[in-house]
């Protein structure tokens, strides 16, 4: 299966008994894989860049915890397969992680539409992120969800630049109440480059 049409299927999953017996080892491997795919931005935002491997791990874990069998599997595949990059994109779960409930509520009430203000700069070309269309993640009252799913679509030239270890790639949010940028570091670029064709 090519990266353009790669999805998790039932055949890809580890049998529940085997997964349960070796869960600690599987989870450790996934944590190691994900460590260079996590990028913090400002005091509250963290991007977790998804892949076939992270979505397979998420589905496996959800099935292990909830034990819903094939009925649950169908729902999990529907929910998580759209977050697997399709060869010309990067896909991220963006989380606003604030421990204090009052601070979290106040912040989320101020940043409605923030999912429309996320971008990457590749050789000074701005790639505006596209939010996942599963549901509206800013309420009609203007409150943002603490979890957003976003896609960065790249051209072939932008992919080539991204893969160049010497190129500077900037990740940013440009919302009136949350303006931050950060450089994507080398180890993250190497890991994320593998999502492209």
What distinguishing features does this structure have?
single chain; 197 residues; 36% helix; globular
Describe this structure in words.
The chain has one domain. Strand 4 and strand 5 form a beta hairpin. It is built from seven helices and nine strands; from the N terminus they run ααββααβαββββαββα. It has a five-stranded antiparallel β-sheet, with no helix packed on it. It has a four-stranded antiparallel β-sheet with strand order 5-4-8-9. The longest helix has 15 residues. Helix 3 runs antiparallel to helix 4. It has 197 residues and is an alpha+beta fold. Helices cover 36% and strands 24% of the residues.
What is the general shape?
Answer: globular
Poorly predicted runs of 5 or more residues: none
Q: Work out the radius of gyration.
A: 17 Å
Average of pLDDT: 92
Q: List SSEs in N-to-C order.
A: HHEEHHEHEEEEHEEH
The total count of strands amounts to: 9
The biggest beta sheet, please? 5 strands, antiparallel
Q: Quickly count the helices.
A: 7
- What share of the residues does DSSP label as strand, in percent? 15-25%
As for the number of domains, it is 1
Helix content: 25-40%
Kindly report how far apart the N and C termini lie: 12 Å
Strand order of the largest sheet: 1-2-3-7-6
Classification by helices and strands: alpha+beta
């Amino acid at each position: 299966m090519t990266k353009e049409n790669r999805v998790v299927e039932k055949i890809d999953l580890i049998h529940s008994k085997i997964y349960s017996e070796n869960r600690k080892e599987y989870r450790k491997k996934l944590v190691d894989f994900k460590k260079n795919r996590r990028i913090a931005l400002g005091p509250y935002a963290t991007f977790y860049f998804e892949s076939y491997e992270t979505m397979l791990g998420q589905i496996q874990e959800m099935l292990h915890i909830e034990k819903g069998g094939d009925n649950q599997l169908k729902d999990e595949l529907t929910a998580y397969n759209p977050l697997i990059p399709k060869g010309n994109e990067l896909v991220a779960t963006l989380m606003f992680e604030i421990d204090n409930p009052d601070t979290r509520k106040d912040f989320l009430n101020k940043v409605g539409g923030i999912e429309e203000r996320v971008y990457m700069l590749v050789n000074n070309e701005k790639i505006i992120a596209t939010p996942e269309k599963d549901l509206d993640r800013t309420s009609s009252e203007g409150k943002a969800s603490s979890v957003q799913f976003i896609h960065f679509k790249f051209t072939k030239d932008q992919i080539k630049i991204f893969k160049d270890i010497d190129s500077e790639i900037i990740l940013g949010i440009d919302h009136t109440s949350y303006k931050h940028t950060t450089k994507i570091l080398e180890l993250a670029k190497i890991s994320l480059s593998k999502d492209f064709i």
